[in-house]
Amino acid sequence: MTDQMEPVDDATKYRRKIDDSLARFGAAHDELEAEERSRRERKDKLVARLEQTRTKLHRAVTVATTAVSSKVNAEGHAVSDDQRDGDQRDGDEKTDETDDDAKAAPQTRLQEKKERRNQRAMLAGRITAIAVAVLVFIATGIAWGAKTWFNSQFNEIAALDENSKDIRNAAGQIGDANFLIVGSDTREGAELEDHVGDSGGIPGARSDTVMIAHVPKDRQRAVVVSFPRDLEISRPDCERWNPETGEYAEVVPGADTVKLNSAFTVGGPRCVTKVIQQISGMKINHFVGIDFQGFKGMVDAVGGVVMNIEEPMRDQELGLIVAETGEVRLRGEQALNFVRARKVFGDPTFSDYGRMQRQQEFMASLLKATLSKDVLLDVGKLTGFVTAFAESTFGENIGIDQLLTLAQSMQGLSAGAVQFMTVPTVGEANDNGNEELLEADTKALFHALIENTPLPGDEEEAPQQAGGAGDDQQAAPA
């Protein structure tokens, strides 16, 4: 240590700095030691509290065990008394000491037997719990694996434009499921015996069927709106689509006063989605395209679809399609012709409207057949349907979860939960041979769907629908 009164020179200043540093280190050491001592005291208190808690729990368990033992002893005494009375009735005289020994032995055996029974029950419970856990794990794994396999089968094609400026009240449509379903008449891969033509005679692809299946966020109803293939539209600029590869290429300029099915021919799924969103303002978040070949495979996979035929069905171009009447099970090519025919004798309109109505009815029946226990509980049928569906469909955002949302909603057809409609049109072809929209009625229809309000005409007809909840609703002649 330095003397504070000695002359202050450089050496003295250096020594004083060392002294100050040592003093600071000493103070820091004292603080750390105090903190460590405080931590040890807190730890000792915590250990003491834990020991007290353990002691209390031990006492509680001891008391409970004593109570159970007392009850068992009492039962043991009762058993011993019964046995002693039986011995006395047989004339077997025993001394008091012998009686005490006779009572003690059965009591001990009873306790051991009860303990073994409890142990077996605990072991059985543990084995059961483990077995259940294993079964749940296996079932979950199988379900996840099946779902993953199913989803991997679908052919993904870019089709959606969920940020389009044509979507009206996009925030209000959050949670809604809007499926754009397009039935394509592409002949790629078709054989001569399939009777649908081939890609050489009819190149490219056209949309024979265009419909929106709308399921609102609350899942309380489902509405299917069909669009005539000859609906007059103004086609926007679209990328050219190759149906063989599913790829898009150069941009094709838009055109006015053309048919709706030209949108699919030129620009494929993306162009049809763009056109339908312009007309409806709805946010299309699922696209499902189905071609000729897969349609027949899906119908056959579920064992056919039953339709109610009121009179024999004959088409001007396809000839006799269904000769029987009543409930007829349609399969394969017959089912395909049923939904393709557009010039059926006896149809009030002899046009696309009758075909759209048949397509809607057939789709509902096909979904019902698919969701029936005969298919869902039959692995072969279910796998066959999914395989056929995957081989013949293409689109975007069409996994198992999304399709179940549509199918389960469609299952409520008999309760009137599904309404089938046709987009409002004039009902007669114009000079260009096209169907024209009724602009005001179309706007009102899609406004009701977007806002999830009653459809046009529902409020006025509600009092008269006491016995007709399941009737189809038509916004245009069918």
How does this model look, in words?
The chain has helices spanning 10-89, 96-153, 261-280, 292-301, 332-340, 352-370, 373-376, 379-392, 400-410, 439-451, 458-461; strands at residues 155-156, 177-184, 207-215, 222-227, 232-235, 238-242, 247-252, 255-259, 286-290, 305-309, 313-315, 319-322, 326-330, 393-396, 418-422. The protein is α+β, with helices and mostly antiparallel strands and 478 residues long. The chain has 3 domains: 1-93; 94-153; 157-464, LCP protein (Aminopeptidase). The chain has a 7-stranded mixed beta sheet, sandwiched between helices. A two-stranded antiparallel ribbon has the order 5-8. The longest helix has 80 residues, at 10-89. The protein is elongated.
What keyword list fits this structure?
single chain, 478 residues, alpha+beta, Aminopeptidase, 3 domains, seven-stranded mixed beta sheet, two-stranded antiparallel sheet, 11 helices, elongated, disordered C terminus, transmembrane
What count of helical segments does DSSP give?
11
Describe the strand arrangement of the main beta sheet, using strand numbers.
1-14-9-2-3-4-15
So what's the CATH class of the largest domain? Answer: Alpha Beta
**Proportion of helical residues:** 40-55%
In the CATH hierarchy, the third-tier topology of the largest domain is known as Aminopeptidase
Number of spatially distinct domains: 3
SSE sequence, one letter per element: HHEEEEEEEEHEHEEEEHHHHEHEHH
- In oligomeric terms, what are we looking at? single chain
Give average pLDDT, whole number: 74
Instruction: Tell me the number of strands.
Output: 15
Beta-strand residue fraction: 15-25%
- State the end-to-end distance: 112 Å
| Second-tier CATH architecture of the largest domain | 3-Layer(aba) Sandwich
Poorly predicted regions:
71-80, 86-95, 100-105, 187-204, 462-478
Q: Characterize the main sheet.
A: 7 strands, mixed
Q: Give me the secondary-structure category.
A: alpha+beta
